[in-house]
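Severity: low
Component: inverse-folding endpoint
Summary: output formatting inconsistent between runs
Steps to reproduce: submit the following C-alpha cells with default settings.
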C-alpha cells in the first residue's frame, strides 16, 4: 500500500479500482479507521480520531451525524482513551457495567461478566430483534437472559427498573420460563396454566407446579404429533431433572380431553 497524507493509505480492490484506508497507532495499538472513496475524507478521519484520543473534552455528545467516523468507531476510540482497552465493538466501560451503543439514544447496559462475550460479537438488529453470530448461528441475545422469542413483556418477563435497555441480570425477572406455560393467580394462590396453539389456543390444563405444567405441554405436543399435527412445536427442556423423575410426571400428568381426542380434519 502506498502512503500519502498522514494516516492515509492507497489500495486497490480486486477489480482494480482505487480506494483509501485510514488508520493510526495509539498506545502501541494499530487501529483501522475505515475505507473511503477519496484521500481527503480518509485524512479527515485520521485527524478526527487523533483528536478524540488526545482531547478529553470530546465525548459521545460531541458526535455529529455527518462525521467521517462512524458512531461505533467513535465509541471504541473514546473507550480506548478513557479505559485503556480497545474493542472493535461499540463498548464503553463503566466501573460496574458497560454500554453497548447503537446511537446516543439506543444502547444496552450489560454486566461486566458479559464483557468478553459482546466484545467479540457484533450485535445486529432486524425487525426489533437483536442477534449475534455465535458459532455460525444467529442467536437472539434475549435468549441469553432466559427471554424466549415468543415471550411477552409484562406477562413472561419484566425489567425491574422499567428500562428495557438494561440487560443486567439483576434487572430481569423471568415470570414464565417454559413454552406454553403462564402463571395465574387466583385468591392469592399461584397456579400454572398451559395452552397450546393448533388453529387456535387449546387449554391443556392448569397445574400446581411450573414443572408439572411444562411437562404437560410436552405431553400435549407428543399427542398432537401422533394425531397428525405437523406444526413444529418446541418442547420444554427440563434442566437438572432425571429421566426417571421426568417419566413419572409425564405418565401421571393429566391432559385435557380436547388434546387426548384431537383429530386432524
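Observed output (run 2 of 3):
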Amino acid at each position: 500500500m502506498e502512503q500519502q497524507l498522514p494516516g492515509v493509505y492507497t489500495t486497490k480492490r480486486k477489480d482494480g479500482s482505487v480506494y483509501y484506508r485510514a488508520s493510526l497507532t495509539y498506545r502501541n495499538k494499530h487501529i483501522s479507521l475505515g475505507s473511503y472513496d477519496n484521500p481527503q475524507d480518509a485524512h479527515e478521519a485520521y485527524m478526527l480520531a487523533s483528536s478524540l484520543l488526545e482531547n478529553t473534552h470530546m465525548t459521545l455528545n460531541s458526535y455529529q451525524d455527518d462525521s467521517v467516523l462512524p458512531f461505533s468507531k467513535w465509541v471504541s476510540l473514546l473507550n480506548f482513551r478513557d479505559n485503556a482497552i480497545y474493542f472493535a465493538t461499540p463498548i464503553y466501560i463503566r466501573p460496574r457495567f458497560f454500554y453497548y451503543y447503537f446511537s446516543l439514544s439506543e444502547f444496552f447496559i450489560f454486566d461486566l461478566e458479559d464483557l468478553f462475550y459482546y466484545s467479540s460479537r457484533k450485535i445486529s438488529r432486524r425487525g426489533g430483534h437483536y442477534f449475534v453470530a455465535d458459532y455460525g448461528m444467529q442467536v437472539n441475545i434475549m435468549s441469553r437472559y432466559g427471554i424466549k422469542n415468543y415471550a411477552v413483556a409484562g406477562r413472561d418477563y419484566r425489567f425491574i427498573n422499567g428500562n428495557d435497555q438494561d440487560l443486567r441480570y439483576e434487572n430481569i425477572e423471568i415470570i414464565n420460563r417454559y413454552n406454553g406455560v403462564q402463571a395465574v393467580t387466583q385468591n392469592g394462590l399461584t397456579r400454572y396454566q398451559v395452552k397450546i396453539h393448533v388453529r387456535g389456543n387449546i387449554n391443556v390444563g392448569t397445574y400446581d407446579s411450573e414443572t408439572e405444567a411444562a411437562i404437560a405441554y410436552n405431553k400435549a405436543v407428543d399427542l398432537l404429533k401422533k394425531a397428525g399435527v405437523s406444526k413444529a412445536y418446541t418442547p420444554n427442556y427440563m434442566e437438572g431433572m432425571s429421566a426417571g423423575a421426568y417419566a413419572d410426571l409425564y405418565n401421571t400428568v393429566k391432559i385435557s380431553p380436547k388434546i387426548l381426542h384431537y383429530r386432524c380434519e
